Amino acid sequence: MKLLEDMILQKGKIINEDVLKVDNFINHQVDSKLMKEIGVEFSNYFKKDKITKIFTIESSGIAPAVMTSYELNVPMVILKKQTSAILNDDIYQVNYKSFTKNTTYNLTISKDYISQDDSILIIDDFLANGEAAKASIKLIENVGAKVVGIGIVIEKTFQPGRKILDELGYNVYSLARIKSLKNNKIEFIN
Ligand code: 5GP
Q1: Residue 91 lies in a domain
Q2: CB crowding 125-157: b at 16 or more within 10 Å, else e
Q3: Structural domain range at position 20
């Protein structure tokens, strides 16, 4: 997506060879016009898939996920990150390790917002090792619901997440694919 790539080049900050900071337009300050375009792009790509809900993990995926849910006219559900396991009959939980925070979370959803009839599109801001996506998939499939696709705003193709999800057979659609952050330079795959 040209608009997104241009913004990454102009405003993205390389923290090191593995991490890109996009606080100026996605993760801290949010560019709502860009989010609208992202919503349109994901919706055009996934609209044939009869999606019933959009899932994202708090908090950075919320902006692109809500715009996609608006375009597809289905609800968006935020998976909560709890720092401890909760014993409660009203929720489902799955454990996962965060890429940026190096912390383990319990991804949590109320039973009210998922059923086995759901066909779910997962949206997230970044794909790195695939841990967030894998935990979301597990949470959804444990209930018997279906993952119809995974929409990623920025994929780092030099980390293992994409390969893992491809091998598991999921339809991953990324709007910007970064092949390298080396030498203080952002390089995309075309
Ligand atoms: P994964 O679970 O695929 O290893 O990592 C994905 C999650 O880690 C995303 O939800 C995102 O919040 C965070 N993340 C991974 N890589 C980056 C990065 O380069 N920059 C930022 N800002 N977040 C990242």
Answers
A1: no
A2: bbbbebbbbbbbbbbbeebebbbbbbbbbbbbb
A3: 2-81+112-188
Q: Rounded to whole angstroms, how far apart are CA atoms 180 and 81?
A: 29
As a whole number of angstroms, the longest Cα–Cα distance in the chain is 50
pLDDT digit string, tens, across residues 128-138: 999 999 999 99
- CA angle at residue 132 from 19 to 13, to 5 degrees? 20
Q: Is residue 92 part of a domain?
A: no
The answer, yes or no, to whether any atom of ligand 1 lies below 6 A from the CB of 127, is: yes
Q: Look at the chain and report how many structural domains it folds into.
A: 1
Judge whether 12 lies within some domain: yes
Give 89 Cα–ligand 1 centroid separation in angstroms: 30
100 pocket-lining for ligand 1 (C-beta < 6 Å): yes
Determine the Cα–Cα distance for residues 59 and 78; give it in Å rounded to an integer: 8
Tens of pLDDT, residue by residue over 79-113, are: 999 888 877 889 999 998 888 777 899 999 999 99
Is 149 in contact with 170 (CB distance < 8 Å)? Answer: yes
Q: Which tokens sit at 69?
A: 């849910």
> Distance from the CA of 128 to the center of ligand 1, in angstroms?
6
Residue 179: its H or E element: strand 172-180
What ranges in 47-183 are assigned the alpha helix state H? Answer: 62-72, 131-143, 161-167
Q: For residue 2, what are its two tokens?
A: 């040209």
CATH of the domain at 169: 3.40.50.2020
